[in-house]
Specification:
The chain contains twelve helices and nine strands. It is an alpha/beta fold and about 325 residues long. Bound molecules: phosphoric acid mono(formamide)ester.
């Protein structure tokens, strides 16, 4: 049943678990409408004269540009901030950030994802003091604007009823940097609520945050779906409808990235290549949030091949981001 769109005005979007299935469904419905409007060249200035502050404590290609261009299309203005260009670098408090930015604008979006057990708590503290909605652009716990775009992409390719779908979320080797755990954790907390069975594969030592996985398993149990964990990438891929292999750092080693990356080299064979894709269903989808370490996490023939939907995922970051801004910042009144 559709919900009242004005009921989401002022709401934070910090983890997908903070929103009901019905609220996420509504956000996806709006995303579809805005995607059609964008493609048809129809103006949809739902947020004229509104300002979104985007505070990034990490790099970004997709997230920044999806939200910034999305806000332009909605008729508002997005301001890019980082730690060094603000007093965050000098230790300005979350309370002062939340209160003061609320006096200037209408929404606050934050990325703070590289330090386990810091980012989520920091943005929740800002949200406690802010009078405007806070959107999580990736933290240590969740990447909700990514996973809602992934859910939109799955529906576009596999239909609205995703019950029984088996999605393999696997660790993969990457030498570039210790990637946050928030994407696999976010997939585990979101997809089972929409009928999807999730299999998580990783080498020993690359466990996800135990308290996040407890919440994911509780949500899956409530939805009648499953989350299973294996240390065998082939086993996860076997008969999968969707594979989502990506790297993440070792939870106990983020402060010593060089050592952690060197040690993870023992698992170089955790790559998504044509042989592994052949273990999955013949029409399986290959997904990745990007950026991908080509040649390490995935071979070019897979990421550029017929199974891949990575550019649809990246595009849907903008349409879902616009829906989240429009709903929480008053684009439908309220
Ligand atoms: N997927 C994603 O969040 O990409 P960026 O890090 O480039 O924003």
């Amino acid at each position: 049943m559709a919900i009242d769109r004005t009921g989401l005005v002022g709401r934070d979007f910090i983890e997908t678990l903070d929103w009901t299935v019905e609220e996420i469904d509504e956000a996806l419905a709006v995303s579809g409408e805005l995607k059609a409007a964008f493609r048809n060249g129809e103006p949809h200035r739902l947020l004229p004269d509104k300002t979104l502050f985007m505070l990034f404590l990490d790099k970004s290609t997709r997230t920044r540009n999806a939200f910034e261009s999305g806000m332009t299309q909605l008729g508002g203005h997005a301001i890019y901030l980082d730690a060094e260009k603000t007093q965050v670098a000098h230790g300005e408090s979350p309370k002062d950030m939340g209160v003061i930015l609320s006096r200037y604008g209408h929404g606050l979006a934050i990325r703070h994802d590289l330090a386990p057990y810091e980012g989520n708590a920091w943005m929740r503290e800002i949200a406690r003091w802010a009078d405007i909605p806070v959107i999580n652009l990736q933290c240590d716990v969740d990447h909700p604007t990514q996973t809602i775009a992934d859910l939109m992409t799955l529906r576009e390719h596999r239909g609205t009823d995703l019950r029984g779908l088996r999605v393999a979320v696997s660790w993969a080797y990457a030498p570039s940097y210790a990637k946050p755990l928030s994407v696999p954790q976010g997939l585990a907390t979101l997809l089972p609520r929409f009928g999807i069975d999730v299999v998580i594969a990783h080498p020993p030592g690359f466990e996800l945050m135990p308290e996040v996985m407890e919440r994911a398993e509780a949500a899956a149990a409530a939805a009648g779906t499953t989350i299973t964990v294996t240390h065998d990438m082939d086993e996860a891929f076997a008969d999968a409808d969707v594979v989502y292999p990506k790297s993440w750092g070792r939870l106990d080693a983020f402060r010593d990235e060089a050592t952690a990356l060197a040690e993870s080299g023992a698992f170089r064979d955790w790559i998504c290549d044509a042989r592994r894709m052949s273990l999955a269903k013949s029409d399986a989808l290959y997904m990745h949030c990007l950026p991908a370490d080509r040649g390490s996490e995935v071979t070019d023939d897979v990421i550029d091949g017929p199974h891949s939907v990575v550019y649809d995922e990246a595009e849907n970051r903008m349409h879902t981001g616009k829906a989240l801004m429009a709903l929480t910042m008053g684009g439908f009144g309220g």
